[in-house]
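Note to self: keep these together.
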Amino acid sequence: MRFGQIRQIEQSARQALHRVRDRYMTQRTGLINQIRSFLLEFGIPIRQGAGVFRIDMPRVLGDEDNELPPSMRKLLSDLWSDFKTLESRIEEITQQIQRSVQYSDTARRLMTVPASARLRPVRWRLQQEMAVSFPTADSSPLGSGLCLVSTAQGIKQRCFRSVNEEMAI
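Structure:
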């Protein structure tokens, strides 16, 4: 059994902010995909991604020559306003998270880690807890690198030649 530290109130509040922001971003992605599919039914393609969606959507709504019926144009305008509301909520929560980072030394240090490393916390934890380093190429089946062994569901071995390269056996 592994015991951890009890969470502080600020940590719980910060985690709640991240979860709500993630939910808003999921809703925004769903809304973008729904609008894109509606427009595709009328032969109007929109590029993928929230950034280009912000650019393309006003152009589509402002184009009176496309084949959108008035009822669909009204529906898309309402969905566009929903999108802008979600965007403002995401921006507000992002600013709150950035403000909370100012008061936490740990959070400030984590923000200096490249994004790709922050996205792989499980691998970093495994490297710290269960890593066995092979000094020579003869010792390891994959050459020199890092091997992790887990016995949760039988023996499973994962080896890394470098931090960015992962190989499964």
